[in-house]
Hints:
Elements: H1 24-33, H2 38-77, E1 82-89, H3 92-102, H4 108-114, E2 119-125, H5 128-139, E3 145-151, E4 164-174, E5 177-189, H6 190-205, H7 212-238, H8 267-280
Parallel strand pairs: 2-5
Antiparallel strand pairs: 1-2, 3-4, 4-5
Helix pairs in contact: 1-2, 6-7
Amino acid sequence: MEDEAGAADADGTRSASGLPALPESFLTARAQAAGVGADDVRRLIDQFSRFMLGYKFGIDALTTKVRILQQEFKHVHRYNPIEHVSSRLKSPESVLEKVARKGIEPRFDEMYEHITDIAGVRVTCSFVSDVYDVFDLLTKQSDVHVVKVKDYIAHPKTNGYRSLHAIVDLPVFLSTGPQTSRVELQVRTIAMDFWASLEHKIHYKYRGEVPDGLQTSLQEAAATAARLDEEMERLHHDVRGDATSPDGDDSADEGDDGEVAAVELSGLVIARLAQHRADSGEPHA
Length: 285
């Protein structure tokens, strides 16, 4: 997953489902050059679309798991360590370009095995301890299989990049039965995410040839971000006894999608529930 999650493809092409559409001309030109007929081109487009759709479903499945945790933390534990969740699905053109660049045989099983960043989900947390807690809550679920973990927090990249990565397989259930989907999971703090976003913009502007002076400044900024995470973690532990959520909002409100996230129980409902338990002899939880 790239550090800047794109909401649309470079050419803006999207299908009605939100899945990046594979332009027929993109494959047709290559197919004609290889002597492939029009029927085979259409068949290949259909197969590739199904292949990409599996990754979109994987993103949907993993983000659903994250949002369930968000709601549980917010309305049950009264502390939500998840600040934000985003996702990105590579465009078909980008996938095929990577196939050619890495010399991968253009078969779906080879692409699945060797291109692990087709689908990506990024979770941004408040503190470093939250990163590891949320990571464990997601990757230890029984239907999530961890393929590979890269801990760039404990072992930052030379340019200063810090984040916790994992390649995970998880099932999606289709009309034809279960299918395994592979997703790259990234979990990081707000400070890590801010630095990574800036570094990505600079890297893109200079097409990978970042001037030495600017690269040094980025490394210094990464060190500053790491110190900020440490200081914020210390302050977090100092005030952890406060039952109110970090933003001071101790009430149930609407979710990110504008839908009511929890039902607020009135005093009358609670009183009736207590009376019902008393009458039935049901012990209190």
